[in-house]
């Protein structure tokens, strides 16, 4: 059960909060990049023994739909001819509103899950987030995706946009529920270093909702989405029963994955590796050598335990108590239990509602002990 991630870094505009590996105004390099991705894939699979049967394939970015669908098709055909896809394979492409003229073509090449970067359904928040689409365009993109035949659609939403109120966020959630997507991811806005937002923040020009409002927004997401029948299966993720993202579950369940493309990470046989982040540096390195790895590390047993616990705690089912039975974790776990940040549930330890809000803190407390 191995997942395959393909990174497509091209974007039409830059969102000021984003710290992903992306480039704008570079789509003239799409063909050359596609060839590099295919070459890297062909080189990398030679080292994988036995050849994997992919259980999920994920085109992420960047914005995969910013380049011609023909390019994604070439990559997909290479994957299909050179390796095997499991019969129930989930094939996701991230897409943005504004690219809906490409949805039918995406469906035709075999993409069976669409992940739409909606972020908000009110124009004030979208403007504050620097998105290049309106709420009306996001709604129509969703309907176009359904018309194109997608029966598995995920929507990404962001809460805590500059100036956003709790009631505006609530309205976004209610409209999203009305659309009835199979999957919703809700992320709190964070100001990442070296982004335009970070500079605005340092200059005092970015006014974010207070922490109490952000906590309330997250709580509203849990209540409204759970009330509408979505299963809250990971800190930020909600799905109709049977529609949890198989690809992302692979990360949280520590299943192996191979990442192809610039900045992509891989995890196979206890080894983590990552690729060069710059577009031209990636392309040139693959053209010269077939791969573009920047670094790798072999995880020590203690690191693997820690990673397993941290990833497991992200899931609402939590981690098995046996997994956290490491003696030196005991005092800290007891403290987290008595502070009601963790709770026991059916042989598992999981975050409480209070713990969900402080998940990073809980993990930091555990890391200290390992
Ligand atoms: S479209 Fe997505 S990847 Fe591109 S800049 Fe915006 S948030 Fe980042």
Describe the structure concisely.
This protein is an alpha/beta fold and 370 residues long. It has helices at residues 30-46, 69-82, 103-109, 123-128, 135-147, 166-179, 196-202, 211-227, 246-252, 279-289, 301-314, 330-338, 353-357, 359-369, and strands at 2-8, 10-11, 23-24, 53-61, 84-95, 113-119, 153-159, 183-188, 231-234, 237-239, 257-260, 265-268, 271-275, 293-298, 319-320, 342-345, 348-351. The longest helix is centred in the first third of the chain and has 17 residues, at 30-46.
Average pLDDT rating: 94
Tell me the domain tally: 2
Overall 3D shape: globular
| CATH architectural type of the largest domain | Alpha-Beta Barrel
What is the assigned CATH homologous superfamily of the largest domain?
Answer: Aldolase class I
Using only C-alpha atoms, the radius of gyration works out to 21 Å
Q: Give the low-confidence spans.
A: none
How is the CATH topology of the largest domain named?
A: TIM Barrel
How many helices in DSSP terms? Answer: 14
Cα-to-Cα separation, first versus last residue: 29 Å
Biggest beta sheet summary = 9 strands, mixed
Helix content: 40-55%
List of distinct ligands in this structure: iron/sulfur cluster
């Amino acid at each position: 059960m191995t997942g395959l991630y393909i990174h497509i870094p091209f974007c039409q505009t830059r969102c000021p909060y984003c710290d992903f590996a992306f480039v704008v105004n570079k789509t003239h390099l799409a063909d050359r990049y596609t060839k590099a991705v295919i070459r890297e894939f062909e080189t990398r699979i030679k080292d994988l023994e036995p050849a994997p049967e992919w259980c999920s394939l994920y085109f992420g970015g960047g914005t995969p739909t910013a380049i011609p669908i023909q390019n994604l098709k070439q990559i997909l055909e290479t994957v299909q001819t050179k390796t095997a896809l499991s019969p129930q394979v989930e094939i996701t492409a991230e897409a943005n509103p504004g690219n809906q003229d490409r949805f039918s073509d995406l469906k035709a090449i075999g993409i069976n899950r669409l992940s739409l970067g909606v972020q908000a359904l009110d124009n004030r928040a979208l403007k504050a987030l620097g998105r290049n689409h309106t709420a009306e365009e996001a709604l129509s993109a969703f309907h176009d995706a359904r018309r194109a035949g997608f029966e598995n659609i995920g929507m990404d939403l962001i809460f805590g946009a500059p100036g956003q109120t709790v009631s505006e966020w609530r309205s976004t959630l209610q409209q999203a529920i009305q659309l009835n997507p199979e999957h919703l991811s809700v992320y709190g806005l964070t100001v990442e270093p070296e982004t335009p937002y970070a500079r605005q923040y340092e200059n005092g020009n970015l006014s974010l909702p207070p922490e109490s409002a952000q906590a309330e927004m997250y709580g509203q997401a849990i209540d409204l989405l759970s009330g509408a029948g979505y299963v809250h299966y990971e800190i930020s993720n909600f799905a109709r029963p049977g529609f949890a993202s198989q690809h992302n579950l692979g990360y949280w369940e520590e299943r192996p994955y191979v990442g192809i493309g610039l900045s992509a990470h891989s995890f196979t046989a206890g080894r983590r590796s990552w690729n060069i982040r710059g577009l031209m540096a990636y392309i040139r390195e693959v053209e010269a050598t077939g791969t573009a790895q920047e670094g790798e590390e072999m995880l020590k047993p203690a690191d693997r335990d820690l990673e397993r616990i941290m990833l497991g705690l992200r899931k609402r089912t939590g981690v098995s108590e046996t997994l956290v039975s490491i003696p030196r974790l005991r005092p800290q776990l007891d403290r987290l239990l008595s502070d009601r940040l963790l709770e026991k549930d059916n042989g598992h330890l999981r975050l409480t509602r209070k713990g969900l809000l402080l998940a990073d803190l809980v993990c930091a407390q555990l890391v200290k002990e390992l």
